[in-house]
Amino acid sequence: MNESVLLVVGAIALALAALGAAIGFARKLKEAVAQRDRERASRVAVESRVPDLERQLAAAEREVASLARFRTVADAEREAATLRAEASEVLNRARHDADTLARDAKLQATGAISTAEQRARDTVSQAQQQATHTVESARQQATDIVSQANQRAQETAGEALRALAELETTRREARALQNVIEGYGDLYLVPATSVVDDLAEEFGFAEAGAKLKAARDNTRKLLKDDQAAACDYVEDNRRETAEAFVTDAFNGKVDSILSRVKDDNVGTLRQKIFDAFSLVNMNGRAFRNARITDEYLFSRLEELRWAAAAQELKNQERENQRRIKEQIREEEKARREFERAIREAEKEEEAIKKAMDKIQQSVAKASDEQRQRFEAQLAELQQKLQAAEEKNQRALSMAQQTKTGHVYIISNLGSFGEDVFKIGLTRRLEPLDRVRELGDASVPFEFDVHALILSDDAPALEHALHRHFLASQINKVNPRKEFFRVPIAIIRAEIEKLGIQASWTMTAAAAEWKQSLAIEKAIRENPEQYRKWVDKQLVLEAEIERVEERELAEAS
Description:
Shape: elongated
Strand order of the largest sheet: 5-3-4-6
Distance between the termini: 103 Å
Radius of gyration: 59 Å
Number of strands: 6
CATH class of the largest domain: Mainly Alpha
Number of domains: 4
CATH architecture of the largest domain: Orthogonal Bundle
Order of helices and strands: HHHEHHEHHEHEHEHEHHH
Number of helices: 13
Structural class: mainly alpha
Strand content: 5-15%
């Protein structure tokens, strides 16, 4: 690069020298122009003398005229003519000299200017040619130097890239060893649904199974075509032995990893395959760089992808079936509840009607005092009959309307903490039965009810609330869990915004949880309380066992 700079500087110096020569010629040209201007001034001076000579001639003529009155000399006129002729000759000679000087000066000036201009052009042309040649030469040398420097830089960069690649390989191997030693934990977890997020909606378990089969066929083809591994051994026997060594080692690890698709997270399994790839190739370097090819690695990863997708689609299908069965069971419970309510209402109506008939028969035989008492009983029975008929009608109506039900908002402070609410629906005639079922042995405490909203289209109301509080959904993987982390005041405001009025309980009782906290505090402060509590628990457990044994005996 320094040589290029020096050459460029030399070229600039030559150009400056040529420019100096051109400036010198320009100065000579300027002097020639000045000489021409001086000669022109001389001609102007001569021309300026002509009027003076003419004036002198006129004065001489006037003097001759004045002398003519006093002189009578015969040759006076000849003398005057002679003088006029001499003056005219002098004038003509002066004009000729002036013209001659002007032409000579003009010719000299023109020649000098032409000569100077030609020399200047020649000098500038020569200087330009020399400068162009020098610059081109310098540019070519600079280009050669830059090309050589770029080539050396590329060679250096290539070495640096190879060093970076080796560093990255070493890092992957170190990470793989660290994962094997310390375990994977939750570092590589990804949502199980991520393996099916990019699939079409109609893509199902059967399609994923076909993709898995194709991926396995591709793996077998790579093995058959000797494209699963590579090695730098020249001798065929050694190369085949080394390639078989790394292939068997890698396949053994990957097959074991793929067998855990049902139980482990796909992100962790993918990382385990990458780690197996790094460690097998690291051990294969001792055998002339025996290694698994990238193409074979990607083929095994495709197997994992479609195996995980098939498993997830199968899980989703199983969950849908479970949800459908649960819905069917819930509908069956609601149907039985409606039928039982209708039967009970009909029995109640029949009993009331019989009682009313009996009282009416007694009224005819009763005294006035007894008649008043019977009439009061009849009025009371009439009200009960009306209530039973309304209950029967309501049960019959709910049984006929499949969308009618209750949307409930419940919480479990001791199990899930504050501001966690479940928003669900039930078609049960008694919605609290469903709430009690949710608070069974799967949670440590019973649920508290904040609102029960009867709706003609309970599924639509539930869906609207779920959609509105989607961002507050606690389980971001399974939306059917229906738990949301949002203050109860915001839920109430949204329901009121929909124009729905309901009775609300804003504060959770959480009685069992609060009592449990009080017992724990008492136990910490007084060990005697712990003994009393244990004795009470033993008594309760014995009573529960007796009840369960009795129920079992009755069932058998």
